[in-house]
Amino acid sequence: MKLILDGDINIYYIQTLCMIFFPGEKFGEHEKSNPATPELRLKLTHRADGMSAKATVKLGQDRASATRTLAFSPHYTEEKTAKMVCGAAVISACGELLGYRPSWGMLTGVRPSKVATDLLRRGVSKTRVKRILTSEYFVIPKKAALATDVALTEQKIIGTPSARDCSVYISIPFCPTRCSYCSFVSYTSKKLLSLIPDYLTRLHSDVRAVFANIRRLGLNVKTIYIGGGTPTILSADQLRELLSLIAEETDVGALEEYTLEGGRADTITAEKLAVAREYGVTRTCVNPQSLCEEVLTNIGRCHTVEEFFRAYEVARASGISEINTDLIVGLPGDTFKTFSKTFDSILALHPENITVHTFCVKKAADILRQDSHIYSLRGGEAGKCVDYTQLKTQQEGYKPYYMYRQKNTVGNYENVGFATEGHESKYNVYMMEEVHSIFAAGAGAVTKLVDYQPESGGNPVIERLFYPKYPYEYLRDDSTAEKCARVEAFYREHGLID
């Protein structure tokens, strides 16, 4: 796509907006024009009392223009004013050209509830927040209501954060097979799976270092999340070694939540979950993604619907108190009929958590190489499926408690976590809302150091420390001591410890 920008304009934001209307488009300074190449011209003008922006979008012989103005406000910086007026112009012009109104309007970030959260913290009423989202950000009413409800629930869960709170993430980046939609750091070949014993030896060392650092800083561990990949690819004995080490390093009985992500039904056994229960795990995940055999085959999931129900029964019988199930809307070959049947079957099981993702086309996913035309503007029946999940969960007593979005999702829809009262995943909220540091260990894991500053009205100060992406690089990495020193320096620099 060709962009011609005039003024102090955030090009990344404009590109992200354009990708809502032209999914899968690429951008470049020397992008050549042809009849099939969309073109956007955008001019930002400063005025005495505010800013104006004019957007003209062209596709073949069709074109549309829109001009929008926005007065300066004490609530918005000049940069925010420019972003909003440009966003309004682009949304209006592209929407007119294509006859399409994106559900989330000009909100392109990972956290669509962030605007609602910021407004609520300033004392704006729930009704007024929804009105601002619809009138100023072009969010459709039902999404404005969803964002506001999620923001209210998140704030209830978060309460008053302490600078001494933290969580821990431990990465097991291995899977028995790779799903075609997946872009996570996960490894499936026989050669890479043979690294697991050496990987665990190194991981144990880093887990000890992480918890030693936490103790030195006098921090309080609120939640632990063991994710992947597929952590239950480990044998029962390997899980026991890892979980017993964690129990030696911290008081797991004092945790608010302790998650072992099972995920793949073909890796879950009664023996493994018995070990997890023995060592204090309170939450696990059994993720079918779909309960349609044809769809599972399409995405290379390599387990059957029957295996999912078996794994779910094993998880329920284990005594682990909370079970999450993940589903994906808009998978190749899925329809409203098949998806709604899947969702009704999940609701009949009454899991404490249901997380509904919208199919996201990642550049690293195998499925994009199989079908380069998989991007979708309107998303087909995906919107109907998303609406169905939100209606049915409400009827069954679930509430949306956290939400995030990704680029290139089918129909530009969201990912939402639903939970029964009191069973919300606290780790998910703490991680998404960045209210305290998340210490990490393992390949592809990222420690996120957070100085949470809501009282100042500003965004939290964040520093990220990355472990090597690939297991074989991780095994050669010697940066753990350096990371621990950087962690302590961050806490002292920001006055978070004495």
Radius of gyration: 23 Å
Q: In the CATH classification, which architecture of the largest domain applies?
A: Alpha-Beta Horseshoe
User: Helices and strands: which structural class?
Assistant: alpha/beta
Q: Supply the CATH class of the largest domain.
A: Alpha Beta
Helix content: 25-40%
Q: Find the CATH superfamily of the largest domain.
A: tm_1862 like domain
User: What would you call the shape?
Assistant: globular
Order of strands, main sheet, comes to 11-12-10-9-8-7-6-5-13
Chain-averaged pLDDT: 91
Beta-strand share of residues: 15-25%
Number of domains: 2
CATH topology of the largest domain: pyruvate-formate lyase- activating enzyme
DSSP strand count? 15
Q: What's the helix count?
A: 17
Low-confidence stretches: 364-373
State the major sheet.
9 strands, mixed
Give me some keywords for this one.
21% strand; pyruvate-formate lyase- activating enzyme; Maf protein; four-stranded mixed sheet; 498 residues; nine-stranded mixed sheet; 17 helices; globular; 2 domains; alpha/beta
